[in-house]
Amino acid sequence: MGLLAGSKLAAQTLNLTAGSTLTLSQIFPKVEHIARFNLRADRARQVLEEAEILLGILAVPQILALHEDLFQGMSSMLVTEGLMTVGQASGIKTANMHERIQGVIPGAQFTPESLELFHLVRVARNTHIHSGGRADQTLINRIQSVPQGAFEVWDRITGEPFPPYSVGDPVRMGLHELLGILAITKRLAEEANGFLQSALPVSRWADMLVADWIQQRRPGNRAQMIKSALGLSRVNFGAIRFAASDIEDAMIRAGI
């Protein structure tokens, strides 16, 4: 969002140079790396105004990669607790990670519309990686398979409908797609977190809490340390209702 706002801010600033035939390096010689973007001010302003599309192409894959990393971490936790096999966890990727998580946790069910939209954006992203940013038949098939209810959710999130692409059309990956995937991945991550709250034992959460607490521990007796850790738990582990004995047992396991 900083890059997006920054590009718009820079474009507005260049309005002050309207009519100039100088290049950016002549106008702003002290700006680092300006020679790498050494266009005339009018052309530079046009590029900056259109930067939103390029930022989306860069940002959406990064968001999906971070989301995948989160789910790989969750799968490792499930392997530790014996709820998922090493083979299942090693095969985790964006195309199957939600389905694998909900397949091993009893009662887990991601919101169907969120899953549909996640895979829709994932396939749209793939066109920028494998098809030069143009719609292929895989994307068309995915669009046709998405229920209308999911498209209505997309409309509410982004404020506009998902484009009805045909094969060969340029696939847009701009601000609306960025806002959409941010909202979708946030919801899916929150739901997965909820599934793990019930799937993992309190002792496992207590060990994680104590590991976090150790990074900021202060001197004190055992009662003071437990009170401090309980205070941290209310900030970062609010859904897990720890007893003082849970914290003490975790501290003992951590050698404290």
Question: Would you give an account of this structure?
Answer:
The protein is mostly helical. It has 3 domains: 2-49, no CATH class; 55-199, no CATH class; 202-253, no CATH class. The protein is built from 13 helices and no strands. Helix 1 runs antiparallel to helix 3 (41-49). The two termini are 42 Å apart. The mean pLDDT is 92.
Give the SSE order as H and E letters. HHHHHHHHHHHHH
The figure for the number of domains is 3
Helix content: 55-70%
Report the β-strand fraction as a percent range.
under 5%
- Rg over CA atoms, rounded to whole Å, is 24 Å
Global structural class: mainly alpha
Q: Spans of 5+ residues with little confidence (pLDDT < 50)?
A: none
Number of strands: 0
Give the N-to-C terminal Cα separation. 42 Å
Determine the oligomeric state from the structure: single chain
Total helix count? 13
Q: What profile does the largest beta sheet have?
A: none
Could you say which overall geometry the principal axes of the C-alpha atoms support? flat
Average per-residue pLDDT, rounded, comes to 92
Short description:
This protein is an all-alpha fold and 256 residues long. It contains 13 helices and no strands.
